Amino acid sequence: MPRSSLMQRLTAVAVLALVPLQTMADEPVEATLDNGLKVVVKRDARAPVAVSQLWYRVGSIDEVNGRTGLSHLLEHMMFKGTPTVPAGEFSRRIAAAGGQDNAFTSRAYTVYYQLLAAASLPLALQLEADRMRHLDFKDDAFKSELEVVREERRWRVDDQPSAVLYESLYASAFVVSPSRTPVIGWMDDIRHMQPGDLRQWYRQWYVPNNTTLVVVGDVDPQTVIAEAKQRFGGYVAQVLPERRPQLEPTQLGIRRITVKVPSELPYLLMGWKVPRLQKIDDRPPYSLYILSALLAGQDAARLPRNLVRKARIVTSIRTDYELFGRDDGLFTIMAMPATGHGVAEVEQGIRRELTRIARDGVGEAELERVRHQIEASRIYQRDSMQQQAMQIGRLESQGFSWRDENAMSERLLRVGSDDVSAAAQSLIDDNLTVVALQPLQAKGKPPAQAELLQGGNHVR
């Protein structure tokens, strides 16, 4: 199956809008089937196509030590066939209808999606309903795909300096929380995984009451809901495994880690434990989101302007903060020092910028620039049916509703200079983990190219 660049754009888009946008899209219509499966349909008649996304609320944070990587490997195996749809036939039928399909796994959910002509939507729902409860893979197919995933881990993680850095950060910042688990799993767990482990995972989590179906396109919502009821309504809700809280103990001081891997340049990655949005009225997460954008949201932001172009001590720098999610949150800053400059100097430069914001706040012009930036990203999102579906699915799969979007946007608009200053002040050393990459020259091959990659989702 093609590894579409479309999925990369899906996961990179901004989360929130600042203003309502006038389009031909209607308000979503939702329904919950008797078995607990939720259906959300949004009509967008600008083109005779539809996007179907099936969101299972299970990911790497639901796994335990010794059984990591199950969600990601199951995503692969979901294309290995059922008694009525042989291996490879799912994608072949979608392609024959002129569509595209793929899937991805994250820490909090696993998503299967199709983009196809609106008239062919019933085909996608029929195929998804079939493999929700009738997956039938052979042990030989399992062993073969296990090798595929091991190789995927090698080239996506082990051979990518920034991916190694992110994996080391999460494994060091968290000691109890399942957020420390990589989405793709630890190599030794992958190596020792058994077919029975995966079949049990499938039976436990791939049930209607753990699933949201999102459809956006030139469709009639009530017709889609009726079709979903016909395809999925016969499945019985199951008791889900207990999700016990795994609370992270209080960090008692800064943690510093050095990793040595082949690389052209050193890297610096700083990560602070921070809250995520749990309730609409929580204020700190909105301020952290704005702080991230102010620091490195675009070329005019603080860190690129002052450390890349003025001081010239880094070649590139980025920040990352996810507003909401089922896992524990980190506020991260990642930088590549320029030639002749070390990670210690770069860290001090970052700290100076944070101190200025903590002490002086930010100007209204800076805040307004960030608001326009988020608005522009949202306009781009609304121009894509895929992006609209992604926004609905993410909200619905992480404890919120698609109806919460406007309320979140209004609260972002109210973030002021004092709020951003407080967010910067909250990034204290007692919640900080610093990972420095010391480059090595690989024997027999050139070092990996230096890139600022973001760990996270894994596409099949």
From TrEMBL:
Belongs to the peptidase M16 family. This is Pitrilysin family protein. The keyword Signal applies. Keywords: Signal. Gene3D superfamilies: Metalloenzyme, LuxS/M16 peptidase-like. PANTHER family: METALLOPROTEASE, MITOCHONDRIAL-PROCESSING PEPTIDASE SUBUNIT ALPHA. Residues 1-25 form the signal peptide. It comes from Crenobacter oryzisoli. The lineage of its organism: Bacteria, Pseudomonadati, Pseudomonadota, Betaproteobacteria, Neisseriales. Residues 194-373 form the Peptidase M16 C-terminal domain. SUPFAM superfamilies: LuxS/MPP-like metallohydrolase (SSF63411). Its cofactor is Zn(2+). Residues 38-180 form the Peptidase M16 N-terminal domain.
